[in-house]
Amino acid sequence: MKKQRKIPMRKSVVSGEMFPKKELLRIARNKEGVVSIDPTGKAPGRGAYIALNPEEVKLSQQKGILQRSLEAKISDEFYEELLNYVIHQQARKELFKDEQ
């Protein structure tokens, strides 16, 4: 009998909902205060998870949720890059969902 593997869950800082870790995107802030997208989920530093949903990115920017949770100033350019990344990942997910 095969043992059921535990799926790691994380909470989106925007919606507060719990999701499997693979369905979320980690945003990391390193010791120097540089905020970056962490697609591997393993970058050192403080991390915050956000769902792969363009609406969550927009809401996060309007309310400053990521800035508060990461305790760092986040530029509009970073939010633009984040939005484009999330849209791209969502499109990939749709494209390859039949293969899983």
Using brief descriptors, characterize the structure shown.
single chain, 100 residues, alpha+beta, Hypothetical Cytosolic Protein, Chain: A, 3-stranded antiparallel β-sheet, two-stranded antiparallel sheet, 3 helices, 5 strands, 37% helix, 22% strand
- For the termini, the CA-CA separation is 23 Å
Shape: globular
Beta strand %: 15-25%
CATH topology descriptor: Hypothetical Cytosolic Protein, Chain: A
Largest sheet: 3 strands, antiparallel
Average predicted local confidence, pLDDT: 93
Number of individual domains: 1
CATH class: Alpha Beta
CATH homology-level superfamily: YlxR-like
Low-confidence sequence ranges: none
**Structural class of the helix and strand makeup?**
alpha+beta
Count of alpha/pi helices: 3
Which bin fits the share of residues in helices?
Answer: 25-40%
The radius of gyration is 14 Å
- Extended strand count: 5
**Element-level helix/strand string:** EEEEEHHH
- Name given to the CATH architecture: 2-Layer Sandwich
How are the strands of the largest sheet arranged?
Answer: 4-3-5
Summarize the structure in short:
By secondary structure, the chain is of the alpha+beta class. The chain contains 3 helices and 5 strands, in the order βββββααα.
Task: Describe this protein's structure.
The chain is α+β, with helices and mostly antiparallel strands and 100 residues long. It has a single domain, classed as YlxR-like (Hypothetical Cytosolic Protein, Chain: A, 2-Layer Sandwich), CATH 3.30.1230.10. 37% of the residues lie in helices and 22% in strands. It contains three helices and five strands. The chain has helices at residues 54-63, 65-70, 76-96; strands at residues 9-11, 18-20, 24-29, 35-38, 46-51. The strands form two sheets. Strands 4-3-5 form a three-stranded antiparallel β-sheet. A two-stranded antiparallel ribbon has the order 1-2. It is globular and about 50 Å long. The mean pLDDT is 93.
